[in-house]
Amino acid sequence: MRKHVIFITGASGEVGHALIRRLAEDGGNRLLSLDLHSLPDDIRPLTTHMVGDILDTSLLGRLVSEYEIDTIYHLAALLSTRSEFTPEMAHQVNVEGTLDLLKLAAEQSQWRSRPIQFLFPSSIAIYGMPDLESKNLYNRVREWEWNQPRTMYGCNKVYGEMLGTYFCNHYRQLATEQPVHIDFRCVRFPGLISAFTLPSGGTSDYGPEMIHAAAKGEAYNCFVREDARIPFMTMPDAVSALLTLAAAPREKLTRLIYNVTSFSLSAGEIRDRVIAAFPAAEIRFEPDAKRQAIIDSWPADLDDSAARRDWGWHPQYDVATAFEEYLIPNIRERYRERSA
Ligand code: AKB
């Protein structure tokens, strides 16, 4: 008999790492994961892991012959800065990979005559404010506003959201065969900050990089201006958002795509909090005009009232507790252990 699993793509990335730990805390979950890379030691025993490419359709075919996939967390993606250097590859991974996974979910649903849940993390990168004046004026952006991304990654994510919506509502709408039920659910994340992992290839990376560099005693040149402001959230809250949305009763959801956020900070305000914790930290601002332009196009804050109303979203950490209780103590400990 085939085994029932929760399938996680992009498993060795930052969100995957934290999500696998949380899913494994519930002993009843059986996890199957996929990534181009092998997993770090601490999560390796928690999941059956495949090293491979989400674009490898024969690998996906083998997985469905062995496993019954009930839920998919499709995390695999090339982030915004990296995607600007390889836009065609970004399109392949971020769009074609998503399409392949949605097709896999549709097949699973047809064979088994049951809904398959598909969780998709999107991003503030799907927004595109045309100039700083608009960014300052339209502060807490709602889901349907300013959906005009200026990065390949933002374009890929907004189209991934549309593909998911299409598969959920209209896929094979004229066919006569067995209906498909994809229960697509999506959160748009702000910049994410983990105490235990570092991002790579994103444009919001200056936030986590500044804190980790200070804890390591390394100087940091921040690639955006002091006044650059975007929303952020801790990694535990990002994982809670995915899990809470997955657990929400379908009938409570008035949308398929939800903003979620915790706090907004300028790069200068992050620097001030880092200096308060690590007074010797050396942080300089050397803005890179091109990466700055991407940050300027992302909203200063998100309106996440729909998520709060429909499925009770609320972040565990506000700005003070994020720094004082989660980031600073854990990051300090992490580098103390490494230098010991
Ligand atoms: C990135 O910077 O590309 C990501 C994001 C905000 O989606 N961290």
Topology (SSEs and partners):
Elements: E1 3-9, H1 14-25, E2 31-35, E3 48-51, H2 57-66, E4 67-74, H3 80-85, H4 87-112, E5 116-123, H5 132-137, E6 140-141, H6 152-169, E7 182-189, E8 191-193, H7 206-216, E9 220-222, E10 229-234, H8 235-247, E11 257-259, E12 263-266, H9 267-277, E13 283-285, H10 289-297, E14 301-302, H11 305-311, H12 319-339
Parallel strand pairs: 1-2, 1-4, 2-3, 4-5, 5-7, 6-14, 7-11, 8-10, 9-13
Antiparallel strand pairs: 10-12
Bound molecules: 2-amino-3-ketobutyric acid.
How would you describe the overall organization of this protein?
The structure is a single chain. By secondary structure, the protein is of the alpha/beta class. It has a domain at 77-194 and 233-262 and 302-317: NAD(P)-binding Rossmann-like Domain (Rossmann fold, 3-Layer(aba) Sandwich). Helices cover 44% and strands 19% of the residues. The protein has twelve helices and 14 strands. It is globular, with a radius of gyration of 20 Å.
Task: Write a brief structural summary.
The protein has 340 residues and is of the alpha/beta class. Helix content is 44%, strand content 19%. It binds 2-amino-3-ketobutyric acid.
Key phrases:
340 residues, binds 2-amino-3-ketobutyric acid, 44% helix, 7-stranded parallel β-sheet, alpha/beta
